[in-house]
Amino acid sequence: MDYKEYTAKKISELCGMEFEEAVRLTEIPPEQKLGDLAFPCFSLAKTLRKAPQLIAKELSEKFSEDKYIQKAEAVGGYLNFFYNRAEFTKDVIENILKNGENYGKSDFGGEKTVLVEYSSPNIAKPFHIGHLFTTALGHSLARIYEFLGYNVKRLNHLGDWGTQFGKLICAYKLWGDDEAIEKDAIGELLKIYVKFHEEAEKNPELEVTAREHFKRLEDGEKEETELWQKFRDLSLKEFKRVYDMLGVDFDSYNGESFYSDKMPEVVEILREKNLLSESDGAQVVDLSELNIPPCIILKSDGATIYATRDIAAALYRHRTYDFYKNIYVVGTAQALHFQQIFAVMKKAGWEWSDGCQHVNFGLVKFPDKKLSTRHGDVVFLEDVLNESVSKTLEIITENTPLMENKEEVAKKVGIGAVLYTFLKNSREKDIVFSWDSMLDFDGESAPYVQYSYARGRSILRRAGDRNKNVDFSVVTSDDEYALVSMLAGFSDAVMLAAEKNEPFYVNRYVTNLARQFNKFYVSCPILKDGIPEEVKNTRLELVDAVCTVIKSALYLLGIETVESM
Description:
Blueprint: H1 3-15, H2 19-25, E1 37-40, H3 42-48, H4 52-62, E2 69-75, E3 78-83, H5 85-99, E4 113-117, H6 131-147, E5 151-155, H7 164-175, H8 178-183, H9 185-202, H10 205-218, H11 222-246, H12 263-272, E6 276-279, E7 282-285, E8 295-298, H13 306-321, E9 325-329, H14 335-347, E10 356-359, E11 364-365, H15 381-399, H16 406-423, E12 431-432, H17 435-438, H18 446-463, H19 478-488, H20 490-500, H21 504-523, H22 533-556
Parallel strand pairs: 4-5, 4-9, 9-10, 11-12
Antiparallel strand pairs: 1-3, 2-3, 6-7, 7-8
Helix pairs in contact: 1-2, 5-19, 5-22, 6-20, 7-9, 7-10, 10-11, 12-13, 13-14, 15-16, 18-21, 18-22, 19-21, 19-22, 20-21, 21-22
């Protein structure tokens, strides 16, 4: 049952307001003691020609108690509604246990297609810690949209084209060691790529040779093409190992190279629509009416750039997927780039471009490390994940030395800790790495939430088979009811996360749920001797429901649960 809609219907009957407007205005009070829902009467003051306080008082006097709402109370200019706790608790818990992992899911998306482009590392370069921000965000958003009934396609727009491949081919021909590359592809390719830049500073002719190699690659010459394909295949193999650790997969790995032969059409379309003009020899689309710098489509030498490729990619995606949304999970530094290409597509008359969205995010700051591939000073993501798993294993071994599946638990908790760190705040905030906070089992962290889930599962295992002698009227204390109310808010948190493209809302929700569960655990004994049977059984139902929702919420964040810790 939708209690908000039920309450809004009551409000519309009490004051004659349109039902939809009553739904819109009804809100959750800031404190539990103020009720479950509140209706601000200020909106009625003008039409009724009365003070909001008086309106709230008169409406409360008109209200009559029923099965679902126990009372309506006037507080200032608000009319606060209090649910029948036993009935609400019964409705929420039974709904969760009946639907299991499907609780909170909806068909809101109506199978409309949502494309999520994320991760997108550069071929033959390290998969560094900076890539995790886009990977974690995109992976979570894809799951959130699926949860809401959208048809989601995950796209990995690989950086597999550009002048850097001329440099890499040049470096390989000079210093490449196939045996070393076979053992550590990315590490060795990075090594010779860095060496190229070091040597090019002493011998500028290397840059000329590199440009020649890339020109041959663009022309489809056999040697360069085979080397490029080799670098791409080796890189994808390396990337997949990290993706497997994170539980991440994609529907498409079409990178920049895929759109190389699709750019001439874009140029021709823009030319036919008289959108191109010359600027210092380059072909640009003027966007001055939007106070945006011109978007370069062709450089002065006739070469295309990122903007041309991204416009070609968007056109291809529209034709292939007929998307409702085309989401780019890309850093804030690229904000102007996306403003430009979206504006160009709009000027081209492509109304579907309204569905293109840039979901930006902040920087990753690692103490004493700068992420510069050119100079080889990078923090490899795989190293960070492995170190997190290793540190977690040390903590578990120290605290629970007899645990049988320590390695498996450490892997799930360690990787979850890293992912949680990238999703616990608004995505626009920068991230500063801290092992202490990341692996704090008592703080705002994945281990804390995962431990809360494991605690709940442990309680259920110790309880064994439980009968269904439950009575929801005996679990209506403030701590119990606060936990039930939080469970009821799961779908709202997921919907808000999709609306704002902010997995942070699900992260904050599940963290608060874990906190409230642990508070409940302390104040409401479950398996203690002397607890009445119906109280024990009903509290176990509540624990089961909490575990179900924690697991679903963590899944949406890309984080796995563990059964014991």
